Structures are given as structure tokens and as C-alpha cells.
Amino acid sequence: MSDAVVQRVTKMVAPLVADMKLDLYDIEYRGGVLRITIDTPPGSPGGVTLDEIALLTRMIGRDFDHDDPMPGHYTLEVTSPGLERTLRLPTHFQREIGKIVNIRLRDVASGDRRVQGTLIAATETDAVVRLDDAELTERTIAYSQIDRAKTVFIWGPAPKPGKAPAKKAGKPAAKKPSAGEKPVGPSDEMDPAEAAPQSTPTSRDSKLKETQEAS
What we know:
Layout: H1 3-19, E1 23-30, E2 33-39, H2 50-66, E3 74-79, H3 90-95, E4 100-105, E5 114-122, E6 126-131, E7 138-142, E8 146-151, H4 186-189, H5 192-195, E9 209-214
Parallel strand pairs: 2-3
Antiparallel strand pairs: 1-2, 3-9, 4-5, 4-8, 5-6, 6-7
Helix pairs in contact: 1-2
């Protein structure tokens, strides 16, 4: 997508996003899909909701129907960044300082191609990552060297160094039935309602999408 098109899309979309007290995180156009990514302001307690995405999609679609900034046919997609978000722009790195990031570099030896650690600083030209090695080495990486970068979401607290994770307790030995006693099976131990699989609720920060076909 040309810079002129990006500017036109941004000029139309940014006020709508601001009116909803949200941030315009990114705009991309790939493979016929115009993806507009929105986020809550830094420090917000929660992420973008499905209702907010649905409302913003309708608002953007309405304005695009009136004055379409995109040439030809495309698909409009409004989405949130998700738990592990792509870092493309200096502003992306600057708002994620303190997070763990994974960076893949271009035009380097295979052994040095991936960098992972804590993002501790970011300017308009480069980012500083504190590596996970014993020396806590700090590495400055120019954005021009980066092929891909994203934040890393850690599920639960990390284990302490040198401490092995606790082993799961083994199943208790089955009790042998006494003479004349009926063996106990799964249907006797558990109520049928409890045995039914339970659905897992979707995390509020999971990636939310709503697409709208635009002509």
C-alpha cells in the first residue's frame, strides 16, 4: 500500500478510533486485505472488546462507502493485536518497553539470527534488548536489521533458576473389590453431568476479528 493511500486511510480512521477512546495501533494492506489494528491505551486494565470492534467496523465501512480511500476490490478487517503482538513501527517498540520480545534479524549468520530478551529502550531508529544470558547482555538493534519482531506472552510465573518443576502426583492404586462386592467403574464414581466435557471460556485478550467485504 502506497504512502498516499496509508495517509488517506489513517486520516479517515484515526478520528473514529479516537472518539471511541482507543488507539490506532497499525494499518496494513496485504493480499487484498486492509487490516486496521486497534488497541486500548497503554496501562488499560483490559483489551478491546468484540462489541467495540463490531461498532468500529460499521463506522469505517459507512465512511468508506461514502468516500473510499482504497482503489479496487479489497476486504476490510478490523482487529486487536492479541496477546503476542507484531512490532513493526518505532511506536510499537516504544509502547512495549519492559516486555519480553522475540526478534528475527535479516542478513546475518544463522547462529545470530534470533534475539530474545527484555525490551528496555526504544528510539526512532533502534531498540535495546537485555538478553536472557547469564551476563544480561544489552544489545542495540537497528530497526533496519529486523525482519520480524513480536512480544512474547509468558503463561504463568517462570520457574526459579536451578529448581525443577514439581512432579505430578501419581494416580492412587485401584482398590480390589472384596468377595461379593461389585467392582466400581467410571459410571459409579462420577455423576454423568460432571463427566461431560466443559467448554473453556475465551480470554478477553484473545485476538478478535470482524471482517466486512467492501466493493
